[in-house]
Please model this.
Amino acid sequence: MGTKKGNSKYIETPEKLWEYFKDYVKHEQENPMYKVEYVGRDGAKEKTPLETPITFIGFECYLADREIINDLGDYRKNDDNRYADYAPIITRITNNCFAQNFKGASVGLFNANIIARKLGLVEKQQTEIKAEPRVFNIPKD
Model:
């Protein structure tokens, strides 16, 4: 568990933060959500386990639920370079979340529209409008 002494960092080392992230991923894999369907003539209840997207926010919730730290905002922002040694791990965690979401959406595991919006992958279309002046011949009386 993290420490909460004076001004010390809640997560002792970048390596510990990475370990927490790996624990979070394992936790999500071992605790899937379920899709419930009623099938057949008798309406037999079937529960299908579903993989859930790994997210940075989910990771923060995982840490908060275990009373390790409530949010990683300071680590992520790295104001005044106070958390510079954590920056590579924060980037690695963020990239892992992105890759898992992108791959899951690509193979139809996750809703592609939701994941694309979350990852900022919305297709941008550029529309060009040309306004040409029109000349009107107005008859004189």
The beta strands are 33-39, 44-50. The first helix runs from residue 14 to 30. The longest strand covers residues 33-39. The radius of gyration is 25 Å.
